[in-house]
Design goal:
There is one protein chain. This protein is an alpha+beta fold. It has one domain (30-519): FAD/NAD(P)-binding domain (3-Layer(bba) Sandwich), CATH 3.50.50. It contains 13 helices and 21 strands. The strands form 5 sheets. Strands 1, 2, 6, 7, 8, 9 and 21 form a 7-stranded mixed sheet that branches. Strands 5, 11, 12, 13, 14, 17 and 18 form a 7-stranded antiparallel sheet that branches. It has a 3-stranded mixed sheet with strand order 3-4-19, with no helix packed on it. It is globular. The structure holds flavin-N7 protonated-adenine dinucleotide (FAE).
Length: 525
């Protein structure tokens, strides 16, 4: 459609033409309060899916506007804070810190990098800011088991994923491995050495876990040649150095094309489907205290949802409720917590120096029990970087999701409802009990009764997935059913679990979707 046809079809009047003149030619700033801005392609959310979509579209010569509700931390000049001293970055507009435990810190509300969404039986942590979850996550970049990938995605060509899209995702995300010699000698990895030794003694298989944290930088940190980040307790409130978050990889490359405009602190509330198959978004521009400073509309020809599993579901279900956009009944189905289940052990190596005073925040070890049909799980050996030798090991277990949840919209709260209760995590708890029993029998130690719920964190979720599942709620490449110009490319495409930490899978899926959507000429604007 050319510009004249676009104006005719969408029925824009004279006043709207004014905005078209000023902004269709790709302006970097929003023009007016309560006005209408035209953008050919809009992406909502700057996490893994959004960053991949931005790069591939910009490389193809498309002008892209990326809306992110969180802050552009790099541009703002604000620092990320360490776990033991939560500052501005520690929580999204909360009065108290929101770590998985020890929330004794009160805060002044600020658009921080970490958010927590609370439901009755589960708490979901997500990243906010340019880079999405990559700002706050542990950087673990794990390829899922091929057999499990085939089970979860029967319609996808697994060979192609393992030969092409996973390697591409690893390359673009700059995934690397630590040197074994470094891990053996670094005092900050005692917790991992003890964790692995005890797992092996208990008969479990351990594995080295690749990461996007630059391990060469970490070695320099250890040698005190550069400022410390992973070795200074920085991670879930952001890393000031070392981590190759998306703002340093995909988004940086996309910006270098000159085709990407990123608008941070822009929160999309809902959107309307116009008769000509374009979309009009209702957008709030907020300040760092969360106060709405400007509301306006953006009309686009192509809309890509990459607001993360909870964000994309919220946008779709609210827009269905308020603006009657059509939705396939598969939307909201097949939601899962990626089998997340936190647990921990006390008195670990208690009589031989415990787990060390200093912990690197970046996990490097995993326990792979996936192929045990009775107790199938993968677990990360997680650090506890609180500056004390608690002789405690934390584990973020990843299990299968036998019973997926369902997400719906609640008009009374104007937010999502989640059908998810203790019955959904029952099997995960059995696995955790088995794991702790086996570890403690071989090594001594007890369940961490003081952490979580008597040692079991069934309600801790870092990996919300599903609800807009590929090939169910969308076509084979993420185009939403019943829509021509609406696409989804984030974690919501994955049906409930991927068997390992998910961002590599999300990135690979987004690469696959974008390549095919571009081949299909879906993005002619
Ligand atoms: P995501 O990265 O969440 O990005 C969505 C973006 O959309 C965010 O920046 C939002 O602020 C933005 N947004 C949402 N709603 C709106 C709206 N209405 N308007 C404008 N913007 C909006 O999505 N995964 C791993 O693989 N390895 C790890 O080591 C790991 N550790 C983790 C540790 C923590 C503490 C957390 C919270 C997560 C961790 N994850 C890890 C999970 C991983 O970060 C997550 O699966 C991905 O970030 C999800 O990617 P998406 O592209 O789906």
């Amino acid at each position: 459609m050319n510009r004249k046809e676009f104006i005719q079809k969408t029925g824009l009047g004279f006043s709207a033409l004014f905005f078209l003149n000023s902004s269709y030619g790709f302006s970097s700033s929003v023009l007016v309060d309560d006005g209408l801005v035209e953008k050919p392609i809009v992406i909502i959310g700057s996490g893994y899916g959004g960053a991949v979509a931005a790069l591939r579209l910009c490389e193809a010569g498309k002008k892209v506007c990326l809306l992110e509700m969180g802050l552009n931390w790099e541009k703002s000049g604000e620092q990320f804070s360490p776990m033991i001293n939560p500052g501005k970055s520690a929580a999204w507009l909360k009065k108290r810190s929101i770590a998985p435990f020890m929330n004794v810190f009160s805060m002044k509300p600020y658009t921080g990098a970490l958010d927590r969404i609370d439901f009755e039986h589960i708490k979901i942590w997500v990243g906010r800011g340019v880079g999405g979850g990559s700002l706050v996550n542990g950087g673990m970049a794990v390829v899922p088991k091929k057999a499990y990938f085939e089970t979860q995605f029967p319609q996808l060509d697994a060979d192609l994923f393992y030969s092409k899209y996973f390697p591409l995702a690893q390359k673009e995300l700059e995934v690397n491995l630590p040197r074994e010699e470094f891990l053996k000698s670094c005092s900050f990895y005692k917790f991992n050495r003890v964790g692995e030794e005890q797992a092996v003694k208990a008969g479990f298989k351990t594995m080295r876990v690749p990461n996007v944290y630059d391990f060469a930088y970490m070695e320099d940190e250890y040698a005190e040649k550069v400022p410390r980040s992973a070795l200074a307790g920085e991670v879930i409130y952001g890393n000031n150095f070392g981590k190759k978050s998306l703002d340093k990889t995909y988004l940086k490359k996309a910006l270098a094309t000159g085709n990407l405009e990123i608008l941070d602190l822009h929160d999309v509330k809902d959107f309307v489907l116009n008769t000509d198959h374009t979309y009009t978004l209702n957008v709030n521009q907020i300040d760092t205290q969360g106060v709405v400073r400007r509301t306006f509309k953006i009309r686009c020809q192509k809309l890509i949802l990459a607001a993360g599993t909870m964000g994309s579901l919220e946008l779709l279900l609210r827009s269905q409720h308020i603006n009657h956009i059509p939705l396939d009944k598969a939307v909201g189905q097949n939601w899962g917590n990626n089998g997340n289940f936190m647990t921990g052990r006390n008195w670990v190596n208690a009589f031989s120096g415990g787990t060390g005073f200093q912990h690197s925040t970046i996990p490097v070890g995993g326990i792979d029990n996936w192929d045990d049909p009775k107790h199938s799980f993968f677990t990360e050996i997680a650090p506890l970087p609180m500056g004390l030798n608690a002789a405690t090991t934390l584990y973020l277990m990843i299990n299968k999701v036998d019973k997926p949840g369902e997400v719906t919209f609640n008009p009374e709260t104007n937010y999502l409802d989640l059908k998810w209760d203790l019955s959904h995590t029952e099997k995960m708890k059995k696995n955790a009990k088995y794991f702790l029993r086996t570890m403690n029998k071989a090594n001594g130690g007890t369940r961490s009764h003081l952490l979580f719920h008597n040692g079991f964190g069934h309600d801790i979720c870092y990996h919300p997935l599903g609800g807009i599942v590929i090939n169910k709620a969308t076509n084979a490449f993420g185009k939403l059913n019943l829509h021509e110009n609406l696409f989804v490319v984030d974690g919501s495409l994955i049906p409930a679990s991927t068997g390992v930490n998910p961002f590599l899978t999300i990135t690979a899926l987004a690469e696959y979707c974008m390549e095919n959507l571009l081949l299909e000429k879906n993005f002619e604007v």
